[in-house]
Amino acid sequence: MPERRELSVRGTPVHMLEDGAGPPLLFLHGAGGAGRWLPFQERLAKTFTVRMPSHPGHGGSPAAEWIEHVSDLAFHYLDLLDGLGLARVHLAGASFGGWIAAEIAVMASHRLASLVLIDPVGIKVDGWIYPFLFGMDIPEIVATVFHDPMAALALAPPDQSVETLALQYRQGAALARVAWNPYLYDPLLRRRLVRIAAPTLVCWGAHDRLAPLAPCGETWAREIPGARLRVFADSGHVPHLEEPGAVAEAVSEFCRETKEAR
Fold it and tell me: CB–CB of 255/114 below 8 Å?
């Protein structure tokens, strides 16, 4: 079981899960993934020391009023790395977490041993508009995000208590604060992706309906210099949940190759 840690990053409380042994890897979760140590993280922890903080307003981390833009989250995690004494890490992020990871990478690639983006949102893609998740009911969200609906059980709320409903509201509000307008993208990010100097693996679910492989995944892989694209045939928007073993192995293999090439 992972260790649960409570940290303070420049006065902002952070809840973080940590486990494993090996090189440090920071994993940034997507919406709904806070505080959930699932098979993907378990498998990564066999190769890396995995740290998974909950974004402010998500999981056990309280909201932070100073966060007004996704770049604030990027600086928040750079401050977290400083606080942990980590000069360089492997960085992986999924969906919304992938967006934050990309923002970190364009700012500070020198802090990254490698970068893994799993079906990130965050850029304006020609010819595509992200479906409006905030207006969907739960069955619609599941159909949009997952290829196998049964995989959604991993993120199902434990109950329908007042506390759980309040947490869901707080997480939705924290996400909307940085992703509502423009919806799910930073207008400046796409042209900045060329700044990413870290070895980059882009993982994508073949059946992603929120951000389809064509054009979204192909655009990310094209815009990041030297990025490698890996497609997972049995997944939707969250291949690390639908094919955790295959994605974890791809991440470990990529990081191993990256280290050997240096």
Answer: yes
Q: Let me know: does 93 contact 99? Beta carbons within 8 Å.
A: yes
Contact 79, 53 (CB under 8 A): no
SS3 state at 183:
coil
- Superfamily name with CATH number, domain 3-261: Alpha/Beta hydrolase fold, catalytic domain (3.40.50.1820)
Amino acid (1-letter code) at residue 13: P
**3-class DSSP state for residue 51?**
strand
Mean of pLDDT values over 13-19: 97
Give me the residues paired with residue 27 across strands.
92
Angle (CA) 49-54-57 rounded to 5° is 170
CA distance 197 to 194: 8
- This prediction's pTM: 0.96
